[in-house]
User: Fold this.
Amino acid sequence: MSKTSAIGVFDSGLGGLTAVKELIRFLPNENIVYFGDTSRVPYGNRSKETITRYAMQDARFLQTKDIKILIAACGTVSSVAGNLGDEFHMPYTGVVNPTAYAAANTTKNGKIGVIGTTATINSSSYKHAIENMNSSLNVYQRDCPLFVPLVENGFIDKNDIVVRTIVQRYLQPLIDSGIDTLILGCTHYPILREAIADVMGDGVALIDSGRETARYAAKLIKENGLENPQKEAGSCEYFVSDRVDGFSKVASLFLGNTFNQEVHQINIQHY
Assistant:
């Protein structure tokens, strides 16, 4: 591990690319290695034991790429798999604590909503993190299991009747609860930001877990004296566990620009 080593980022699929996008914005000179476990997406309906096993394999693969910090850009892993940094002896962050901190400091009326996968919501990870920061805050949770498949298959248009119907169905109870802040507790969800914002209305602040995690990762790198001294733009490598066909189209949605880089397929079961 050195200052020029890469930032390692993984997710169950491609949602973690929302964190990569923000890392590039905050840390343009850092190198990044991304792994999306596309052969096993989604993680959100799996058992804790299975999610933890998958996360360990993902992290072991990234460790072979000489990384200096590990980021679980996945709300599900962050909620149920524990502190992977202790296991791999390097700086580590998931998405829960940075995002919970941002939400706790954003709300004005003390009512915060959390949306995430079924595993994330069942763990109450965001709720516990927020209440540990400020016990007077009220947290309302809602699992949205169809959001990840929608995004992974390119259904993101706020005017699409399927998208709008599903978003409205999931979010109506949170609207009724009167929240003024909503955590997008899965890194896939910012891709549905327009549809979610349209349903929630202007009075609700949306907290992007990918953005807050990237912001915290930048802080971790600085605190550990691991800032890359190079002046030129950093490199990005991309790996997936299933076919690379179609990756470019979906990656363009997440990264916000035309994606034309090479993508490598690996057998994650080897790790």
In short: Strands lie at 6-11, 32-36, 67-72, 92-93, 111-116, 138-143, 181-184, 205-208, 236-240, 263-265. DSSP finds twelve helices and ten strands in the chain. Residues 6-94+211-270 form a domain with the Rossmann fold fold (CATH 3.40.50.1860). The CA atoms of residues 118 and 143 lie 5 Å apart.
